Amino acid sequence: MLGIDPSLSATGYAVLEEAGGGLHALVHGAVRTTTATPRASRLLAIHDELLNLVRTWNPTAIAVESPFVAENVRSAMVIGEVRAVVLITAASANIEPCEYSPAEIKQVVTGYGRSDKQQVQDMVRRQVTLDSEPTSFDAVDAIAVAICHLVSSSRKAALGRLAGSQAP
Description:
Elements: E1 2-5, E2 10-19, E3 22-32, H1 39-57, E4 62-65, H2 73-92, E5 98-100, H3 102-110, H4 117-127, E6 128-130, H5 137-165
Parallel strand pairs: 1-4, 3-6, 4-5
Antiparallel strand pairs: 1-2, 2-3
Protein backbone atom coordinates (compact mmCIF):
# COMPACT_ATOMS: atom_id res chain seq x y z
CA MET A 1 0.00 0.00 0.00
CA LEU A 2 1.45 3.35 -1.07
CA GLY A 3 0.14 6.49 0.64
CA ILE A 4 0.92 9.89 -0.85
CA ASP A 5 0.58 13.43 0.52
CA PRO A 6 0.98 15.67 -2.56
CA SER A 7 2.95 18.92 -2.45
CA LEU A 8 5.29 20.56 -4.92
CA SER A 9 7.97 21.30 -2.34
CA ALA A 10 7.75 17.99 -0.41
CA THR A 11 5.51 15.13 -1.56
CA GLY A 12 5.23 12.71 1.32
CA TYR A 13 5.17 8.97 0.65
CA ALA A 14 4.83 5.82 2.71
CA VAL A 15 4.68 2.13 1.85
CA LEU A 16 2.79 0.14 4.47
CA GLU A 17 1.96 -3.52 4.81
CA GLU A 18 -0.36 -5.43 7.05
CA ALA A 19 1.57 -8.11 8.91
CA GLY A 20 0.90 -10.09 12.07
CA GLY A 21 -2.30 -8.21 12.78
CA GLY A 22 -0.61 -4.82 12.63
CA LEU A 23 0.71 -2.22 10.24
CA HIS A 24 4.39 -1.89 9.38
CA ALA A 25 5.98 0.99 7.46
CA LEU A 26 8.41 -0.46 4.93
CA VAL A 27 9.62 2.95 3.78
CA HIS A 28 8.57 6.57 4.26
CA GLY A 29 9.91 9.98 3.38
CA ALA A 30 9.36 12.92 1.08
CA VAL A 31 10.33 13.83 -2.46
CA ARG A 32 11.78 17.31 -2.03
CA THR A 33 12.12 19.89 -4.78
CA THR A 34 13.41 23.45 -4.73
CA THR A 35 11.94 26.66 -6.04
CA ALA A 36 15.14 27.26 -8.00
CA THR A 37 14.12 24.41 -10.33
CA PRO A 38 11.49 25.02 -13.04
CA ARG A 39 8.05 23.67 -12.08
CA ALA A 40 7.90 21.15 -14.94
CA SER A 41 11.23 19.69 -13.81
CA ARG A 42 9.98 19.53 -10.22
CA LEU A 43 6.88 17.63 -11.33
CA LEU A 44 9.02 15.24 -13.36
CA ALA A 45 11.26 14.61 -10.34
CA ILE A 46 8.20 13.76 -8.23
CA HIS A 47 6.93 11.43 -10.96
CA ASP A 48 10.29 9.69 -11.28
CA GLU A 49 10.59 9.13 -7.52
CA LEU A 50 7.02 7.84 -7.19
CA LEU A 51 7.47 5.56 -10.19
CA ASN A 52 10.66 4.21 -8.61
CA LEU A 53 8.70 3.48 -5.39
CA VAL A 54 6.01 1.68 -7.37
CA ARG A 55 8.59 -0.41 -9.22
CA THR A 56 10.53 -1.21 -6.05
CA TRP A 57 7.63 -2.06 -3.73
CA ASN A 58 4.87 -3.20 -6.14
CA PRO A 59 1.98 -1.79 -4.10
CA THR A 60 -1.46 -3.26 -4.66
CA ALA A 61 -3.07 0.10 -3.85
CA ILE A 62 -2.22 3.78 -4.04
CA ALA A 63 -4.02 6.32 -1.88
CA VAL A 64 -3.66 10.07 -2.17
CA GLU A 65 -4.92 12.97 -0.13
CA SER A 66 -7.46 14.99 -2.07
CA PRO A 67 -6.94 18.72 -2.10
CA PHE A 68 -8.30 21.05 0.49
CA VAL A 69 -9.24 24.16 -1.45
CA ALA A 70 -9.22 27.20 0.77
CA GLU A 71 -8.70 30.77 -0.28
CA ASN A 72 -5.38 30.33 -2.09
CA VAL A 73 -6.37 29.28 -5.61
CA ARG A 74 -2.76 29.33 -6.86
CA SER A 75 -1.69 26.80 -4.20
CA ALA A 76 -4.68 24.62 -5.01
CA MET A 77 -3.73 24.62 -8.70
CA VAL A 78 -0.14 23.61 -7.94
CA ILE A 79 -1.31 20.77 -5.68
CA GLY A 80 -3.66 19.74 -8.48
CA GLU A 81 -0.67 19.44 -10.80
CA VAL A 82 1.15 17.23 -8.27
CA ARG A 83 -1.99 15.12 -7.84
CA ALA A 84 -2.10 14.70 -11.63
CA VAL A 85 1.45 13.36 -11.46
CA VAL A 86 0.32 10.88 -8.78
CA LEU A 87 -2.67 9.79 -10.89
CA ILE A 88 -0.47 9.31 -13.96
CA THR A 89 2.01 7.29 -11.92
CA ALA A 90 -0.80 5.07 -10.62
CA ALA A 91 -2.24 4.65 -14.12
CA SER A 92 1.15 3.64 -15.50
CA ALA A 93 1.19 0.85 -12.89
CA ASN A 94 -2.42 -0.16 -13.66
CA ILE A 95 -3.51 0.78 -10.15
CA GLU A 96 -6.72 2.72 -9.59
CA PRO A 97 -5.84 5.36 -6.99
CA CYS A 98 -8.11 6.01 -4.02
CA GLU A 99 -8.63 9.55 -2.77
CA TYR A 100 -9.39 10.72 0.76
CA SER A 101 -10.08 14.19 2.11
CA PRO A 102 -7.96 15.58 4.95
CA ALA A 103 -10.98 15.33 7.28
CA GLU A 104 -11.58 11.66 6.36
CA ILE A 105 -7.93 10.84 7.01
CA LYS A 106 -7.91 12.60 10.38
CA GLN A 107 -11.21 10.95 11.36
CA VAL A 108 -9.89 7.46 10.65
CA VAL A 109 -6.45 7.99 12.19
CA THR A 110 -7.37 10.02 15.29
CA GLY A 111 -11.13 9.69 15.62
CA TYR A 112 -11.59 13.44 15.07
CA GLY A 113 -11.77 15.07 11.64
CA ARG A 114 -10.23 18.35 12.79
CA SER A 115 -7.15 16.99 14.54
CA ASP A 116 -3.95 18.99 14.35
CA LYS A 117 -0.68 17.70 12.88
CA GLN A 118 0.74 16.74 16.27
CA GLN A 119 -2.32 14.61 17.11
CA VAL A 120 -2.04 12.85 13.74
CA GLN A 121 1.67 12.26 14.31
CA ASP A 122 1.05 10.81 17.78
CA MET A 123 -1.63 8.42 16.50
CA VAL A 124 0.49 7.34 13.52
CA ARG A 125 3.27 6.35 15.94
CA ARG A 126 0.76 4.30 17.96
CA GLN A 127 -0.77 2.50 14.97
CA VAL A 128 2.23 1.72 12.77
CA THR A 129 5.50 -0.03 13.48
CA LEU A 130 8.23 2.32 12.26
CA ASP A 131 11.84 1.25 11.77
CA SER A 132 12.84 4.91 11.84
CA GLU A 133 11.20 8.16 12.88
CA PRO A 134 9.53 10.10 10.08
CA THR A 135 11.72 13.01 9.05
CA SER A 136 8.84 15.35 8.24
CA PHE A 137 5.13 15.95 8.64
CA ASP A 138 4.87 15.15 4.91
CA ALA A 139 5.95 11.56 5.56
CA VAL A 140 3.63 11.33 8.60
CA ASP A 141 0.75 12.60 6.49
CA ALA A 142 1.50 9.98 3.83
CA ILE A 143 1.48 7.26 6.49
CA ALA A 144 -1.87 8.60 7.69
CA VAL A 145 -3.24 8.45 4.11
CA ALA A 146 -2.15 4.81 3.87
CA ILE A 147 -3.72 3.99 7.26
CA CYS A 148 -6.95 5.63 6.14
CA HIS A 149 -7.06 3.54 2.99
CA LEU A 150 -6.29 0.27 4.76
CA VAL A 151 -8.94 0.88 7.43
CA SER A 152 -11.51 2.09 4.90
CA SER A 153 -10.95 -0.81 2.52
CA SER A 154 -11.13 -3.31 5.40
CA ARG A 155 -14.46 -1.81 6.49
CA LYS A 156 -15.82 -1.94 2.94
CA ALA A 157 -14.76 -5.57 2.59
CA ALA A 158 -16.38 -6.47 5.92
CA LEU A 159 -19.60 -4.70 4.95
CA GLY A 160 -19.59 -6.52 1.62
CA ARG A 161 -19.23 -9.88 3.36
CA LEU A 162 -21.97 -8.97 5.79
CA ALA A 163 -24.32 -7.89 3.00
CA GLY A 164 -23.57 -11.08 1.09
CA SER A 165 -24.32 -13.28 4.08
CA GLN A 166 -27.68 -11.58 4.61
CA ALA A 167 -28.85 -11.98 1.01
CA PRO A 168 -32.15 -13.89 0.64
